[in-house]
Fold each of these.
Amino acid sequence: MFHFHLNNCGNVAMNHVSILAPEDSSNMDGIHVESSNNMQLSNLDIATGDDCILLGPGSTNINISNVTCGPGHGISIGSLGKYLDEKNVAGITIRNTTLSKIDNGLRIKTWAPSPPSTISNVTFQDIILNDADNPIIIDQQYCPDNRCSQQGDSKVQIKTVKFVNIQGSSLSPIGVNVICSKSMPCQDIEFSSLDITMHGSGQPTTASCSNVKGKFLSNVVPTSCS
């Protein structure tokens, strides 16, 4: 279920919109985009029980800026890989955004096993995360409610993703969690100017990564992947 469902749309601008729903309104995305091209989503205030914004299969050339999200499940790309013949996701920019009291902050999610597709050219930049359970997560073993076989790897190729100037606090000791496909590792994943610390103590968070080819550049907390 969605508050706004943007499907098969092009050349859309959404500006100065507020979406306010109870935190326990499960399965209720704020804005759900799929099979759409060339969108500007800006100056949004979203509180809901699921993803504030979800970019599904076929989302291309989407610019998101100046969003306040929370409570909710953050901003997600995907899930991809659940169905055959899903369209690729490409050209996504999310910037100048604040997410507070959220389950997931910035998330990319794909099913395993899955048919082939790609997620590419994604930038998350200038973002504040306040008290996120999972501040940054790439999950290529996405399986809600344990209802999938997991007898195989995700065939969704994730590549050219940048996380730039991300600051905030985590409710988990893991600030960056990257779980990529064994048979199709993530390519060109880049982290720079991160400062994600533990809520309350201010101690540095850690990073956990598997099957990823990427770089942790200057001024990064957590400092590297384990």
Note: The first strand starts at residue 2 and ends at 7.
Amino acid sequence: MLSMIFTTGSASVIAVEQWNRTFDSGGQALSVQQTEDNGYIFTGYTTRYNPGSGGTWLIKTDIDGNMLWKKTYGGWNPTDEAHSVQQTMDGGYIFTGITYSHGAGDIWLVKTDAAGNEIWNRNFDFGGVDTANSVKQTGEGGYIIVGSNHGSGSEGALLIKTDANGNQQWNKSFEGFANYVQQTSDDGYIIVGGTMREGIGLDVWLVKTNTSGNKQWEKAFKGNDVIARSVVQTKDGGYMIAGWISSFTSSYDAWLIKTDVNGNKEWEKTFGGTGRDFAQSVQQTEDGGYIIAGLTGEEFKGGDTVEAKAWLIKTDIEGNKKWEKTFGGDGDDRFSSVQQTSNGSYIMAGQTTSYSAGANVSFFKGGNAWLVKVSEEPEVVKTKKIPAFESLEALLLFIILLKIKRMRKVA
């Protein structure tokens, strides 16, 4: 007996949502990390005005995204914000952002224990409004912070190094503004952000320093009003930058830039359509490719109403798109942070207004903090099995008749 199976599709990998969780925070989640127990820690801030209550929070979940605890922080001013969080070597957490509780706006660093109880907090005032956007624990147990100082008519990037107790050891300032920092394999630091180009637009700005924060080199990547939000050192020693680039039609595309170890551009890729598309976070994945999170199709609907879809893109090692997936409903939904988890899945944090209750249903008024887990799974391949035949001649006759039938349909 002879039989054949015809495959009508090709095997590929797709993104499958495992779960999503919303948290009634009245704001957005900006940073997420998987913890040692395979749960998640994420942080952000509320945009709901509640005098006397801290506007910044940490939320700890189990492996399935169920909340284990929530802690709030800050002084009398409810507009304090947390922008970045990391689990520390002792099992606790460090987060950084901005506090208005001591003046016009200071860089804020808070250390907690494993249960989220505050151990200490530090604020750093450089004059004007100072904000921190990223923090990492360094190899010797201290912390590296990057942010910006907004003075009178000027803006500068700040790099701050502290000891394990948050005491400042040194700081460096640079022209431009900084959004993300990572310690590099040589114990120096890589910083990404933006810099003004002759007052006519923004360039992506990449800076490499040594372990003391002294600049070793810097690179500017020109475009029409471009911004970088995230950088990661790659397995080959180079760097991957994620951000966005503007066109002259008021739209934006997500932008990836791959550099060598000295910051020289090797290639770039853009992703998006005719609307406003933004890459907010990038990580290199176990297979050498990249996972990028952000938002796509942002539209302003009048007043303070915005619509967008949260967006996840997976590429190969050369930046070629393997798949993409959008998340959310009819509101404003966006991802701010992504990380590959220990089992090869992806965890994203951001904000949703599609699943928000009450009146605070716009990006500007504050929706809900949002956590989404996604796995990669093989796409279902459709097959068609034809009947069994007694002989090879009968099978060949069937194939000939099938071809004649298809030719007649085409004619």
Note: The CA atoms of residues 87 and 266 lie 33 Å apart.
Amino acid sequence: MPYQVLMVEDNPHEVELLREALGVVADDIVVRSVQNAREALAYLGQAPPFEQAGKPALILLDLMLPGMSGLQVLGIIRTTPGWSSIPAVIFTAVDREGDRIESRRLGATTYKVKPQTFDGYVSFARSVGYFLRNGAATM
């Protein structure tokens, strides 16, 4: 059974890059995507239209989302029974020390800056696969 990754990302190009990179390195990881915080919370809660959504093995969470920020979503995930144990990685284009500190405080598994090249995405995809298959403490 494939590992399911929930990617909370409002840029479809970023989602497609990760899917393509995972296709290069893994055949056992499926990326499901939502575009904003409202959809992410509905997905995790299996609310319409996500009633059939399974629990993801990993959440990749952008910081800059329309409406609620990724850090706000992380705070909700970490305080909701049934969701709090899901590994959640901040996956963002912005590398700000304040965001790193706040993401750690809120319980992010790790903080990753989005790669600038496809090879960088492939490398990130390898680390995602290793994390999922081996239960590594960090990526």
Note: The longest strand covers residues 3-8.
